[in-house]
Amino acid sequence: MSKFLIVHPDELSVKWIERLKSLGVDTLCIHSVGGTEAHEHLAKMLEGQKSDEVKSLFDLATTEGLSVEYELHAASYLLPRELFKSHPEYFRVDANGERTTSFNFCVSNKEALDFVSKRAAELADTLYASSDKFYFWLDDGKDLHCHCDKCRELSPSDQQLLALNSMLEAIKEKRPDAKLAYLAYCTTTDAPKKIKPHKDIFLEYAPFERDRKLPARVMSEAERENLAKLFEVFGKKDSKILEYWYDNSMFSGWKKPPKDMTVDNEMVVDDVSFYRELGFENIGSFACYLGSDYEELHGEPDLSAFKNV
């Protein structure tokens, strides 16, 4: 089993790398912040990676044996919004029947899909020290899929998978060992029904909406059935559970200063055990808003449960 934690790029430090090693984590994941401005955060992250200081941190991580991965809400970066003036047909139709620049794109438009896929391949080459596993998620939120005449025949899950298949084919032209994650999250939690995944698309399951006061194993029968369908579509190889045990950005309402984080260590241990029983190969959590500003306010965050799982 592989263990990972996800941090924001501006929170990465030598201390974070040492912390990951002490916890037995083998994969450092970078998340450039989601939300409505995810494309801007991603562009800022890429600009920051040009500095020797940032490169040295990733070099240290890889020297210490950590694999580096990037988990990114990338759709609005891959299709720049300013293209709407010249190519409105590239963009999605919202639930009111209007073309809009807000979020994602029209996956049924071949030119748009080709453009996005080419940009995805370029992005894969740009990510410093990245492994061959990529996470180019669609935009962050609900009901952000396309409702045009062609796309409306596809569920949000099928629309996402159609885009991912195309992206992966483009990425593989330069990186033949590349794999790409299907993010089961919010409106894409249901298994795709009409689109079949490329063999190197793997499942990443992010139970964002579950009750965090209850252990994961109280999952409803409907959730269990849907997860079984997801495994049926994607298999369990490389499967990844993305939890929120240490996501202090969530607990802080995505606003700084970060709040003091309280962790239910027994639940973390039990949840990891449950996800192992289900067959997930990779288990981890967001661990954002736990940088130097957190330590100055609240001291060292308690991640101890993750060391013993």
Keywords:
309 residues; 37% helix; TIM Barrel; alpha/beta; 8 strands; globular; eight-stranded parallel beta barrel
What is the strand and helix layout of this fold?
Blueprint: E1 2-7, H1 14-22, E2 27-30, H2 38-48, H3 52-63, E3 67-73, H4 75-78, H5 110-126, E4 133-137, H6 156-172, E5 179-184, E6 201-205, H7 221-234, E7 240-243, H8 248-251, H9 265-278, E8 282-286, H10 292-298, H11 304-307
Helix pairs in contact: 5-6
CATH level-4 homologous superfamily: Glycosidases
Q: List the uncertain runs.
A: none
Largest sheet: 8 strands, parallel, barrel
The CATH class is: Alpha Beta
Shape category: globular
Mean pLDDT: 96
Number of domains: 1
Estimated structural class: alpha/beta
Proportion of residues in helical segments: 25-40%
Please give the radius of gyration in angstroms.
Answer: 19 Å
What is the number of E strands?
Answer: 8
Number of helices: 11
CATH topology group:
TIM Barrel
The helix/strand order is EHEHHEHHEHEEHEHHEHH
- Assign the CATH architecture: Alpha-Beta Barrel
First-residue to last-residue Cα separation: 10 Å
Question: In what range is the share of β-strand residues?
Answer: 5-15%
Explain this structure.
The protein is α/β, with parallel strands linked by helices and about 300 residues long. The protein has a single domain (about 1-305), classed as Alpha-Beta Barrel (TIM Barrel), CATH 3.20.20.80. About 35% of the residues lie in helices and about 15% in strands. It contains 11 helices and 8 strands. An 8-stranded parallel β-barrel has the order 1-2-3-4-5-6-7-8, surrounded by 5 helices. β6, α7 (about 220-235) and β7 form a beta-alpha-beta unit. α5 (about 110-125) packs across α6 (about 155-170). The N and C termini lie close together (about 10 Å). The model has no long low-confidence stretch (mean pLDDT about 95).
